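Quarterly update from the structural biology core.
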Amino acid sequence: MNKQLYINEIQTLFDDVQRSKIFEDQKMMTDAVPLFPIAEINAKYEQEKKSENFDLKEFVLSNFDFLGAKVSIHREKQLPIDEHIEKLWDELTRTAYEEKGTLLKLPKPYIVPGGRFNEFFYWDSYYIMLGLQVSGRVEMMENIVENCSYLIQTVGFVPNASRTHFLSRSQSPYFSLMLDLLFETTKDENIYIKYHDTLEKEHAFWMKGFDKLGNEESSERVLKTINGDLLNRYYDAENEPRPESYLIDIEDSENAGDEFYRNIRSGCESGWDFSSRWFADGENIQSIETLNLAEIDLNCLLWHLEKTLAKSSSLQNLTEKENYYSERAADRRQMIDKYFWDENSGTYKDYHIKKHTTTSSEHIAALYPLFLELASEEQAKSVAEIISEKFLYQGGLVTTTKKTGQQWDLPNAWAPYQWLGFKAMKKYGFDDLAEKIKINWCANVERVYQNTGKLMEKYNALDIETVAGGGEYPNQDGFGWTNGVYLKLKEN
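Predicted structure, tokenized:
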């Protein structure tokens, strides 16, 4: 796979375009496909920009293709919501059998989230698969798994999304959960054997450098605590503005620390871009310190990956490997209790590497130990009470208890956490709470669809008369994971 980040090759033009704001959305230029060889475009640009009547936007539009930059769905008449979603699966299906501009090639068709997101996204795809399962679209579920495997085998990990400028980071590792979902659908245990090597490669990516660490040291996505225990964190090696949010990052970086861009990018690896969860002062993005945190969701997902590796090893009678991954999973399970359970508040939180304590941020990722059945009955009861009291509103579960204007904060309700919340409560017998989560969010989705004909990326859980907002771009419609979670909740 060609790892050349072609944006670097047009850096002068790219910088000028992003700073000039000729496009409302900074993502437009990252998705543009050059119509001519890069060297030719660069030479033309250097020549033509000197003329008095040079028009930058005109130059870009005549040298780049913007086809498919935004997914827009129009209906002559509004369909029942289920029928609308069934049509959406086809309308959101894409192929990329060759590389174009920044778009990475993938061997199989895939489903994009929608709106401005016209590429394959990692953790979105798991929640899309939930709906595909309900719709009986098993082949597309298999395609998603196959595309993830291809990326892990060729790049070493699944990038945040299938574009060259995401080759410095992944996203929450859901591949092993995707296999569980596929197994639940097909009942074919061989998928664990088929993708055993892929699972190992993804695990190696997240654990890279673990064996060389001393206490209180970190290397990329892995760190050792003051007690010598291993934990993981989100990480991106690049310390420069994100191309897709270029000017936003440059403007936000004023009065911020040395590793501001790396902290920003590392926050993106979680999928939570952005939230007070990452901010040292709980309020301002300039105080972002993702690199100082080990995260509860990531460590739970890696426990699941290790558990799955033990299972795939067992199926092949690889006793030594089965023992190795079983031990890793058992150790991590203990670490989850030791470092992420906050006795004082009675919930799970992230762990601050330098302060040797849990962070103050209260957030919905506390659901992961319940979703994966890692919590004790007492812990689950305590978390359930907090979820009910502080996170559940008329329009669904919010992500944090703080309102900062960031999109992964109050008042927004995101599809993944409605499913995680519903399942987590079901697994520990809090059926009434599970039902309430389902009803509140699904009713919100239906109301917005009734009023707009759209399925949104996120929803306002507090004021169900308005649409959700916040963040670096307007609310998007489409929308992959909303479609998936809505169908799956309605089936349960």
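The two ends are 41 Å apart (CA to CA).
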